[in-house]
Write a structure and sequence with these properties.
The protein is mainly alpha-helical and 204 residues long. It is built from 10 helices and 2 strands. The protein has helices at residues 3-18, 33-47, 56-65, 70-73, 83-97, 102-117, 121-140, 150-156, 159-162, 166-203, and strands spanning 20-24, 30-32. The chain has a two-stranded antiparallel sheet. The radius of gyration is 20 Å and the shape is globular.
């Protein structure tokens, strides 16, 4: 690969560090697209033994590239994303691909087209893990950062994608339980706080 083209592509990829997602980290700051991508790849590596029939290298490459269009478009939360947003991101992918030499361009587009088609088991695994990683991140963030609609979304998002394999279904159910536990803990905390305030009022 021509070194100047390589550096140009690296500059585009750097925008994934700058562009923020809706999710917050456990420390309370918004996460970047690059941080989501990093942990999605980690997720794929950790579960690869559950899918011995699959090409784990291809899975991890799709994870690496799955949000590259957002280097140009920025992130649009799933609950806000419309068809026009998907088309804009697709156009951005083809724009980015022009920077790459023929061999890398073909691989780049082939992987993203496979992911979009979602017909291979490898692509289906990426879609399921992608959604689960987002749910895990929300579970790790303060519940104060959740929007009202996310209480239901946390329980349902990615369930359909996880049905492609029993391992993924079990993983999704475990994450769902973590969500329920988090909501229950928040409710208990709110009740304790309310009771404490009432006690103080009674004392006064």
């Amino acid at each position: 690969m021509d070194q100047r083209s390589l550096l140009e592509f690296m500059t585009i990829a750097e925008k994934l560090k700058c562009n923020l997602r809706h999710s917050c980290t456990s420390s309370g700051r918004p996460e970047s697209v690059a941080e989501h991508t990093f942990r999605l790849i980690m997720f794929a590596w950790l579960v690869e033994d559950a899918f011995p029939e699959c090409d784990s290298d291809r899975v991890m490459k799709m994870c690496l590239l799955h949000d590259m269009g957002e280097a140009v478009t920025g992130d649009v939360p799933a609950f806000e994303k419309k068809e026009e947003d998907r088309m804009t991101e697709k156009d951005a992918i083809y724009q980015i691909a022009e920077v790459l030499p023929d061999k890398k361009r073909k691989e780049f587009l082939m992987l993203l087209e496979e992911l979009e088609a979602s017909e291979t088991m490898e692509a289906k695994i990426v879609h399921a893990l992608d959604k689960m990683e987002a749910i895990i991140q929300h579970n790790e963030a303060s519940i104060d950062t959740w929007l009202p609609l996310e209480y239901d979304l946390q329980l349902t998002y990615g369930q359909e994608q996880a049905k492609v394999h029993p391992y993924l279904e079990r993983m999704r159910e475990l994450i769902r339980q973590d969500t329920l536990d988090k909501i229950d803990a928040a409710v208990d905390e709110a009740l304790d706080e309310q009771m404490g305030l009432q006690d103080k009022k009674g004392f006064l």
